[in-house]
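ligand=tetrahydrodeoxyuridine
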Amino acid sequence: MISQERVQELVHKAIEARKRAYTPYSKFNVGAVVIDTSGNEITGCNVENASYGLSMCAERTAIFKAVSEGSDAIETVVVVGDTEGPISPCGACRQVIAEFAGEDFTLILANLNGDTKVMTKEEMLPYGFSPKDLT
Ligand code: THU
């Protein structure tokens, strides 16, 4: 079980990453931190595009950065946005997170007011399609 102090520390890092969001279209800034099974911390922010559909969410930016730098499984994902309650990741991000989520996976959702929500992989994406289904 992750401590409240650790949650706050990681949310703070995601808030720092959020400052680098490129959002001229939505103006909705999101920050993320991914921790892989080796303990590496990788940050991400959302990066939008004039061709709107090419925009990338913060948590997928962080996951793709991590995988491209050699991370195998992901133990923790933190996402923060300026929402009323803790931010809720889109379905596409949930599917991508599930692809790399390790055994002891924890998802931490937060907003800028200090509200947080901690979830398991199954809570994040119940009965999701998984790489195991292909074997
Ligand atoms: N967005 C994220 O980066 N993560 C989320 O969990 C929710 C939505 C981004 C996508 C887009 O750049 C902006 O927020 C508005 O949808």
